[in-house]
Amino acid sequence: MPDYTKILKRQQTMFATGRTKNIDLRVNYLQKLKKWINDNNWAIMAALRMDLNKPPFEAQATEIGVVQDELRYALRYIRNWTKSKPAVSNLKNFPSYGRVYPEPYGVALIISPWNYPFLLAVSPLISAIAAGNCVIMKPSECAAATSALVARMCLEVFHPAHVVVLEGGRETSQALLKLPFDKIFYTGSTEVGRIVMEAAAKNLTPVTLELGGKSPCIVDQSANLQLAAKRIIWGKLINAGQTCVAPDYVLAHASVKDALIKEMQKAICKQYGQFPTENPEYSKIVNERHFHRLNSLMDGANIVYGGGANPTSLQIEPTIIDGASLNSPVMKEEIFGPILPVLTFSMPEDAVKIIRSGPKPLALYVFTSIKAVERYYIKHLSFGGGCINDTVVHLSVPRLPFGGVGQSGMGSCHGKAGFDAFTHYRSVLHKSRHIDIPLRYPPYSGWALKLLKLL
Fold this sequence. Notes:
single chain; Aldehyde Dehydrogenase, Chain A, domain 1; 2 domains
C-alpha cells in the first residue's frame, strides 16, 4: 500500500510554494485538460462502454459534453472569480474599506462514484484547479476502466505533486479519510456520506457531500402526458437508472395515472424497442451486487411492464410498478436502477404530504400546465434542485448550482458554485493610518456610549 501520508505531504509542499495560486498556471492546466479530453474522446467513450455499457451518444451527452461545458465556463470566468471584491464598511470603522479575497483551501480530497465515473471525477477536479488547490483523487474501483483512464489523464496533464489519482478499493478510501485534508468533496450514497462526514469531523475538515435520495416526479391532470412520459422515461433510463437525480418514483394524479402508464410503456418501446436488453444503447447494471439488490426490490410488486432480468449481461428490463405503497421495498430506499413505481394523489396537499414523509429529495420534477401549481410545489417542498416539465437536464446548466439538502447532500457544485466549494473567502478591513478616532479607547465616557448607540 502506498504511503498516503507521504503523498499528502508532497501535495502540501507544492501548495506551500504558492505556484497553484497563479492564475495563468490555473488557466494553462485547464486548457491542457480541455485538449486532452478532446484528443481522447473515443478512449473515454470506450472506457464508459466497458464499465457501464454506455452508448457513445449517452457518454458524450451526459459525461464528456457536460465536462467540456464546465471547462469552457471556468475558462471564461476564472479571472473574474479570482479577483478580490470590494465590501462596504460602516461608520463605526470610519475611515476604512473592506475587500473579500478568494483563497484556495489547500489540498483537496475528491472521492468520485461509479455511475458517472468520468463526469463526477473531472467536474469537481475542474473546480478545485480553478480555485487554486492541489488534489488527491480517489475514483471508484467499480468503474475500473474509467478509473484507470482518469489516472492516466491526470498523469499526462498535471504535475503529480499538483494532482494525483490513487486507485484502489474501500481500504484506500478509509486510509485517505484519516488524513488531515483541507477540503473533502464526496459524491456517492448517503450511507457512505455519513462515514465521510464523521471522518472529516475528526480533523475539522470542511466537506461537500453530493448524495442522492428518492427524487419524486409529480404529474398533475393538466400535464401533456405524451411529453411527460417521454421525458420521464428518458430521465429514468439513461445509464439504466443509475443516476442520482433520476426520477425515483412518479406521483400521478389519480385521473391520469392509467393513461400516463400507457404513454410511458409506449415511450419505452419507442426509445429502446420491444426488447431493451438486446438494444446496444441500453446500459447495464454496474455489478452483480447491485443487480441482485434491484431484483429483490421487485419481489411481490405489481409489475405492469417489464420485470425481466438477464444475469449474464447484468441488464434489467425497464420496469413499471403500479400501486406501490410507501411501505413496499421499492419505496424504502433509493432505487438507482430502471424500476419506476407509480403512486397516485388527488390534491397537491396529498403529494406534498407523501414527499415530506421521507427525507428531502435531491431532485423534484413537476409536469403541469398551471403556473400556480409550479409555484405551490416550489413553495411547499424542500429539495436540492429540479425541473418543471422535464427531468435531469438542470445538471447540464453551469450557471445553476447543483447540490442536495438534508440527507441528499451538503454544499453545491458546478460553475461558480463549484469554484466556491473549493474556496475560502477572506474578509479584510483596511483602516486609515492618518485618522484615528479616539471613541473606542478607554477611559470611556457617557457621551461616547450615547454616540456609539447611534452608530
